[in-house]
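Figure 2 data, in text form.
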Amino acid sequence: MKKKILFIGGSLNQTTMMHKISKYFEDYDCYFTPFYDDGYIGWFASKGILDFTILGGNFKKMTLEYLESNNLKIDYKGKRHDYDLVYTCADLIVPKNIRNKKLILVQEGMTDPENFAFYLVKYFNFPRWIASTSTMGMSNLYDIFCVASEGYKELFARKGADPNKIFVTGIPNFDNAKEFLNNDFPHKNYVLVATSDTRETFKYENRKKFIKKCVKIANGRQLIFKLHPNENAERATREINKYAPGALVYHNANTNHMIANCDVLITKYSSVVYIGLALGKEVYSSFDIEELKKLMPIQNNGTSAERIAKLGLHFLESPSNSLNEIHQNFDLITA
C-alpha cells in the first residue's frame, strides 16, 4: 500500500506551493485540504465568522477551485486517512489531528511586523494566531521547517524556532523571479502599486494617504494598481479613481508578470516585494529595504519544491535518522 501524504493549503500562494511540492511524490498517495482547525477556532470558521482569514471565505473558495481544476484529491481536514507525512504552510494553528504525524512546515513568504500582539505571544503565551504570521515558526510543533534564505533562518531562530529544525531550501513561487520576464502583460515601464488586504483583516491603513504617496513617487509616470485578491475591489477602485485619476486598476491579473514589466514597485506588507528586488526594480515598502535584501528568498532556478520534497522523502524513508544526519544528507544534495 502506498504511503499517504497530506498537503494543507490556505491562500492561493500557499496552495500552489503545496501542489508544486507534491509533484515530486509520484509514488505516494497525495491528498489536499484547505487550511483548517479542529478546535474552537474551526467552529468559528464554520459559522463564517473568520471568512477574512485563510480558514474560510475567498481563500477557501479559491483553494477548492484550484484543487478541483487540477484534479487533485481533496480530504478536507485530513479526516479520511492516517497520514504518514503532512506538509503545511502555517503553524499559527496546528490542528490536533496532525500533531502526532511527521510534519514539515514551509515558509509561505514575508512575515508580518512584530507588533504588540507578537510580544503578547512571545512573553505571555497568548495564542499565536493573534499576531498573525509574525509568529511563524514559533510553535516548534513541526519536525522540519523549510525557509527562504539564511536571513530568514536567523530571523526565525531569533524569534524562538529551533535552529536545528530549520533548513534553507528556498520557497516555491519566489525562487525563480526571472521566469516572469516572459509574459504577455500589455503594459511596460510604469509604476506598479501592489496593495494589501490590511483593512479586510481588521488592521489600520490610511489608504488615501498611501495613494497620494504613490502619485508623488510616480511623478507623472503611468500608475497601475494591482489589488490584493482578498480586497474589497469596488471600494479600492473608487478610492484610486478619486485620488489618482488616470491610474489603471487590475484585480485578477498576474502580479508577478506586472512586476516584471514595471520600472518601480510600491508595496506596504506584500511578499511580492521580493520579486521586485530579485528583478532589480526600484522598490518601496513599509519594511526597511536593506533588511528585505538580507531576507530575500534564494534564487535557485525554481528548484525549491524539489528540495523540500527530497527532505520529506528522506524523512519518510529514513525515520530513524537524526536531524543532524538529515542536515548532512541535505547539504550533500544541495551542494
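Caption note: The radius of gyration is 20 Å.
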